[in-house]
Automatic annotation (TrEMBL):
Keywords associated with the record: Cytoplasm, DNA-binding, Sigma factor, Stress response, Transcription, Transcription regulation
Lineage, opening ranks: Bacteria, Pseudomonadati, Pseudomonadota, Gammaproteobacteria, Alteromonadales
UniProt name for this protein: RNA polymerase sigma factor RpoH
Similarity annotation: Belongs to the sigma-70 factor family. RpoH subfamily.
Natural source organism: Corallincola holothuriorum
UniProt motif Interaction with polymerase core subunit RpoC: location: 78-81
Amino acid sequence: MTTSTQSMALTVPSGNIESYVRMVNAIPMLTAEEEKSLAERLQQDGDLAAARQLIMSHLRFVVHVAKGYAGYGLPQADLIQEGSIGLMKAVKRFDPTVGVRLVSFAVHWIKAEIHEYVLRNWRIVKIATTKAQRKLFFNLRKNKKRLGWFNQEEVSTVAEELGVSRKEVMEMEARMSSHDQAFELSNDDDEKGTSFSPALYLEDKTSDFAESVEQENWDANAASRLKSAIDTLDERSRDILQARWLSDEKQTLQDLADKYQVSAERVRQLEKNAMKKLRLTMA
């Protein structure tokens, strides 16, 4: 096979996928001895030509694995491309001294890359983030014996087989049965006036409703706590704080000293003690 043909095989076409499949199926398979020799050249000498030959001879296997994920409605070319990335990672890490064939070692890497792609693209919103959820996502369909939702017996069977809770099975089934909402309305929907789309709920940058509500609640709560704290003071201390801080026409220490027939320093002490008590009450 020529270098140009090999380059074409490494790049999955977005159009005629059948011609690509025929091309990779025409690449000769390696014998165990050839595979070991190429892997040793790559491992010991960093021979990229050997790595390329290992990859090319296993592309047909990537196509075979990718076909198993056709039911998710994603482009077959993309699935093959992602699987090819997994194959490249496997070739890089393959150790010929272990005694297993590359195809057995590579299957994990190929499926891992395809899994990541499916999870990123099957729904706009991620539906499987934990290890248990991913296991459910890729095994739930094959466990369904019929169309429609699971009955209670089927839920229990799947949960036991996959080692997860019944709740997790039901949650994943609900996620997989949901549909993505179009971001914008179509012209027909817009004319009917009965539909909605996420585009209608875009954030207004000039107004932050949540912040406004939060601020109002904070102000109301602070005012209520302040009033309750002031009510704990004696009448003279309340009057001093009112005159010094809460009145439109604030009075001086001397004004209050004359009113209560004490020194201005005594008024200052009363004010300080009252403020300290307020802070402790509102803390």
